[in-house]
Amino acid sequence: MTDALIPQPSLSEIDRRALRSSLMDRRERLAALPAAAVGPRVAGLLAEVDAALDRLEGPDFGACTRCHLSIEEDRLRANPLTTVCLDCLNDEERRALERDLELASGVQASLLPPRDFAAGDWSGHFLYQPHGAVSGDYVDVLTPSGSGDDLLVMVGDVSGKGVAAALLMSHLHAVFRATAGSGLVDMVERANRLLCAASPTSAFATLVAARLQPDGEVELCTAGHTSPLVVAASGIAELPADGMPIGLFCDAPFATRRLHLAPGDALLLYTDGLSESTTADGIELGSEGVRAALAVASWRTPAELVRVASAAALGYHRHDDLTVLAVTRRSAN
Q1: Number of domains in the chain
Q2: pLDDT one-digit tens code per residue, 282-328
Q3: Of 258, 232, 229, 213, which is closest to residue 121 (Cα–Cα)?
Q4: Burial class, 146, CB count within 10 angstroms (exposed 0-12 / middle 13-18 / buried 19+)
Q5: What letter would DSSP give residue 108?
Q6: Are residues 83 and 142 both part of a single domain?
Q7: What is the pLDDT of residues 140-191, one digit of tens each?
Q8: Which among 3, 26, 90, 281 counts the fewest CB atoms within 10 Å?
Q9: Does the pTM exceed 0.85?
Q10: Rounded to whole angstroms, what are the CA distances from 170 to 183, 195, 199, 207, 219?
């Protein structure tokens, strides 16, 4: 097969710069090791990094060395030393990859908060369903550590799929846990700056974060995420999906809006794995389908509300990770 017939990888120049930076960082760390610590394994890693840097300068970077087709971009971004696509892995390599995915899945599951949570008059529940072994969806719940504290809930969706998205999701988890004591805007702005600095320039995440106060007041910050829904006895309201996704521009501004939930009202957050589910004809469920399902169903608990919302996609084909979270203000009754 001639070079002219080999499909070339479609990595953008931005991706290449990000991968080059990642490889140079690895090289500098390896080269900085004391001479006594440099054995055959370290020397081999250094040679792999140098070889990847050489390939990066040519047109065949990202091409499988066995079939010459493109390596999966999420794997390449997660590990720029990768030289073989999934289809060309031998049995031993497949088993090693499966072990790594099982380990990553276990670590990710350990980061999830309890699926049922409560604080004061607030109670909540969430559904978290990865589309594959690992998920790029992000969900976290921080409950009060003392009297008078607020309840903080967050749902996000990292761009891309697979291990690279899951690694970025884990990064978000660490950032928000470390900044949870700050104001909501400050938390999101700091996460945005850290994500810009620590992730490839093509990676970003949508996010919705809500701080719920004991008196029913809710402070909400959305960053390019699917529109939150307020489910009340008077009807279902879709809140604006404003703000820019985090991780795109270091100085991007973020703002919050305030609303009040009466006893019995609920706030529903979800990722586009729900609304972008499609019929066999390719028609998306959309936020309209989610609202329609909620409008004709009855529910009493957050878990029932989550089940109603997720059931809206029954019979639809899901293409992405799915997260649905509901938090309700307990009724005075």
Answers
A1: 2
A2: 899 999 999 999 999 999 999 999 999 999 999 999 988 999 999 99
A3: 213
A4: exposed
A5: H
A6: no
A7: 999 876 545 689 999 999 886 667 777 778 888 888 888 888 899 999 999 9
A8: 281
A9: no
A10: 21, 11, 12, 14, 24
